């Protein structure tokens, strides 16, 4: 696309609506956008970060990476190849990623195949069916991660058991962490529209120990039912070879690509990232996956036993700063 070419208002709406469907920690949606011709800057919105749970901004950048992948998918649907520059301007560190759109091509780029999954994908926090994920589907998920320079490490039974021990310790610690509890109250529970996670999307309360994160633990959530969750879910740790801000962005793109490919096979996921929000447990997870890769996301993956409830998203115009 010529540098003087501008996107139409309809194209901007398609691209940024796609971005808003990305997952982010506590559905904070920590991004803003600026557009100049065929170039889209994705900025960190510091008002939507979590100082207690995510002091380094790692999770926020992963969420931004997921939004970047969604823009690339929508751009492909419109016929544009795209390229990414992480942290493109040292004088403006709030610009996390710069997306360059090429001229339209025919046929549409391969990422376009995932466009139909953008609105279908959502985090599912209920129990999974007792159904093994087919080997060919696991291979497609692995390929999706590798396409964005990340690796999915699938946990065996022994590794899952050790992860369960880490989760129980972290969950107990967080029940006594007032800073984190107060931070969650801003974003989780109750009736919400636009951002955060409403009570209806939290899923049922686990009736016994399970591989599921109860985001309302520590405060009242009176309308949720209780249920027994599966005891042996498929668990995967999304890892990157490096550990820096560019790797976090790449992890987000890999995460969303994995989730969209999974959605195309009716596979869904929820997250167990509390073990990565504390330095010592995260180091333990790193050892769990071999000690050479950096764990960025922990996922519980499977086929949902019940319909899930989505968290709402802000209108794209609320996160759109400038258009040149």
UniProtKB/TrEMBL annotation:
Q: Which organism is it from?
A: Kribbella pittospori
> What's the protein called, per UniProt?
Nitroreductase
The record's listing under InterPro entries reads: Nitroreductase-like, Nitroreductase/BluB
Q: Which NCBIfam families match?
A: Rv3131_FMN_oxido
Q: Which domain of life is it from?
A: Bacteria
MF terms per GO, please? oxidoreductase activity
Query: Which SUPFAM superfamilies would you find in this protein's record?
Result: FMN-dependent nitroreductase-like
């Amino acid at each position: 696309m010529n540098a003087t070419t501008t996107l139409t208002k309809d194209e901007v709406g398609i691209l940024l609506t796609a971005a808003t469907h990305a997952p982010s920690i506590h559905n904070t949606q920590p991004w803003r956008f600026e557009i100049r011709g065929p170039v889209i800057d994705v900025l960190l919105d510091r008002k939507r970060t979590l100082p207690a749970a995510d002091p380094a901004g790692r999770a926020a950048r992963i969420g931004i990476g997921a939004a970047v992948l969604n823009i690339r998918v929508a751009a492909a649907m419109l016929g544009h190849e795209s390229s990414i520059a992480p942290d493109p301007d040292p004088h403006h560190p709030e610009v996390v990623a710069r997306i360059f759109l090429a001229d339209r091509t025919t046929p549409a780029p391969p990422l376009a195949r995932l466009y139909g999954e953008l609105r279908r994908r959502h985090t599912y926090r209920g129990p999974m069916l007792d159904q093994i994920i087919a080997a060919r589907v696991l291979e497609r998920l692995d390929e999706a991660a590798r396409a964005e320079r990340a690796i999915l490490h699938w946990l065996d039974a022994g590794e899952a058991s050790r992860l369960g021990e880490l989760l129980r310790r972290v969950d107990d610690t967080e029940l006594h962490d007032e800073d984190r509890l107060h931070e969650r109250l801003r974003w989780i529970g109750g009736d919400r529209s636009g951002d955060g996670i409403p009570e209806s999307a939290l899923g049922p309360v686990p009736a016994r120990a399970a591989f599921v994160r109860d985001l309302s633990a520590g405060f009242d959530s009176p309308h949720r039912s209780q249920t027994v969750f599966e005891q042996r879910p498929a668990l995967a740790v999304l890892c990157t070879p490096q550990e820096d801000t560019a790797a976090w962005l790449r992890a987000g793109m890999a995460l969303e690509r994995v989730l969209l490919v999974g959605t195309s096979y009716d596979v869904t996921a929820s997250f167990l990232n509390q073990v990565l929000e504390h330095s010592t447990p995260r180091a333990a997870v790193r050892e769990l996956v071999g000690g050479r890769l950096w764990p960025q996301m922990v996922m519980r993956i499977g086929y949902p036993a019940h319909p899930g409830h989505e968290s709402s998203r802000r209108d794209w115009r609320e996160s759109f700063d400038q258009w040149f």
